[in-house]
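Morning F.,

Quick status update on the modeling queue. The single chain you submitted on Monday has been processed. Sequence for confirmation:
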Amino acid sequence: MIYDVRHVTTYRYDSRVGSAQCTLRLTPRHDNGQNVVTSVVEIDPRPDQVTERPDFFDNHVISARIDATHRQLKIAAQSRVVVERPPIPAPQLTPAWELVGPLAATTNLLGAQSPVHGLFPSRLVPIIDEVTAYAAQSFTPSRPVLEAAADLMRRIRADFRYDPKATEISTPLAEAFAQRGGVCQDFAHIMIAGLRGLGLPSSYVSGYIRTIPPPGRPRLAGADASHAWVRVWCGPEFGWFELDPTNALFLGNDHVTLAIGRDYADVSPVYGVFIGSGRQALSVRVDVKPIE
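Structure tokens below.
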């Protein structure tokens, strides 16, 4: 599949902002069956300083400083991406889940793909006994790790309700788990917490998923949204696989990956600070348009 992805973030302020600094992870990754043909990020007002770099996990990071006073900040990212991922192997072929944690702990890899970085609690994903116990129901003795992870993914899809009003970005994982509701960020964090509680390496993925309209209905502009899902390491022979607990899907050609990290704090598409007073309003519009 070939996609044109447009992600527009707009901040509007009650009063003029004296200056602002932002960090952006809005350039899709170039790996795992995904090739970036073009990618452009435009910022209005025009920044006074812009730097670009890869972060530790090889995500493309843009840092911008705006010194001009303004009442509105608009960040528009436009990318063309080719997605052609290989099929997932039979989950039953992956090793027993009890073997995976020790293999990760003894690896000599230290780079971005090392499973070690997904073993421990992180800023937004603590280890919680209740979440570990919930995940453990899928991990029966000697069950293949990817089969068990897929079962956990499907249980989260069945047991948790998707409710954008139930949580905010700052809602703790324990609260989202207790109320059995939230959005894709919450479901990904819950699944990661359960896997890490069992000693299995897992990490967070930000990106997009294409919205397919009902039969006979036109595709609506702006109907798509930012999305999040999970990576789980299945041993040195198989490596990382990605699962989407919000939709109970393995990563496919309808997903476009932006960034990977330990949790949302590592991969936030847009974050920063500004000098000013008064309130701000945020709007986000995403289009994932397939090119026929």
